[in-house]
Amino acid sequence: MQIEQVSDTLHKFTLALADQPDAFTVNLAACVGPDGILLVDAGWAQTAERLNEQVRALGDGYVKLILVTHPHLDHYGGCAFFGPEATLIAHQNARDELSGRYFALGPLPGQELPIITLEDELSLRFNGEDIRIIPAPGHTDSDMVVYLVDVGVACLGDLLFSDTFPGLYPARGGDVERYIESIGKLIARFPADVKLIAGHGRDYTLDELRAHYRMTVDSADRIRQALAEGKSAQDMVEEDLLKDWAEWSSPAITTEAWITSVCESLTGQTTRSIAEPLTTTIVEKGMAAALEQYQELKTNQPNAYDFGENQLNMLGYHLLWRGMHEAAIDVFELNIQAYPESANPYDSLGEAYAVMGNKALAIENYEKALAVDPNLPSAIGALRTLKA
Ligand SMILES: [Zn+2]
User: Fold this and answer.
1) Distance, CA 225 to ligand 1 centroid (Å)?
2) Which residues contact 5 (CB under 8 A, 6 or more apart)?
3) Ligand 1 centre from 158 Cα, in Å?
4) What is 272-387's CATH number, 3.10.50.40, 1.10.443.10, 1.25.40.10, 3.10.20.30?
5) What is the pLDDT of residues 299-317, one digit of tens each?
6) CATH of domain 2-216
């Protein structure tokens, strides 16, 4: 965990799930002072306890307010740890999503939902700071930017992945046109010397954001043009349509991911997760019917849903977090059948058994995960704990 003091009151935190130099990190900020602590995002559930220790060491008081830039697990997952004494503020769409707009399972037990929601800009005073919460959709339909006017710092959440293409989630309201509009408005609004904290990656200056904006507008135009010529996302990837922007591709957001998300956004043809219909079936008819439905849809409508590895994995975790252990095991096993060459489905099954207290099967599955990928940090860490 890295901590940087930005001003008298503002501290930037960079968190990672694994202690590795190349681990994926998320940035968040804490405003600490006489009024207590305000967080801009809360990181992952797994990092919340350490975050709390570190942030409370910076001053008196506890976490009173959490401004959630959007409800993804790397930004929102830590919120539940801070309990009801922390008031959550988020976009109304974030609350709708967390309340079950996409997944029929509804909110998690003990999950803290935002109790103040906004659709328009909101100002608040905390620790003497003039704080503006600015709705800025694009990555999802729930994004909010938090701008500390006197400090001259803005936290952009996942509107900014530094030095790579934008991350768009069309299946969760992400939209390239709205993204471009949001960034354009922010550029017009911020002073030239503003410091921009990205959701992921290094800080940006306003000039760097301008260059990023140019890249976004120009590469999206190229994709729009190719769509008009009747090309598919696959055609664009194969002909290397965005070769002039190759330097913006990264493991987090590849050129292919950017092309796919822009095409989905512009055509309105988003591929919904297979987890969505399965969840409804689990709730209404039970697990056996859901397993049948999975096979039926995969055979007869293979392109109608996103059958990617992460979809069943995510569904398994949602079941696990709700105490639906047997159903979670079924889903993780289904994912292993679908992706036997992947390490992560075994890792997830191992975690489910660990949660259920079945140490032997947990160890067995984590070892299977490591047999596929000997460097999988989560499996290495879990095995160390289980064998200790
Ligand atoms: Zn993120």
Assistant:
1) 29
2) 11
3) 5
4) 1.25.40.10
5) 999 988 999 999 999 999 9
6) 3.60.15.10
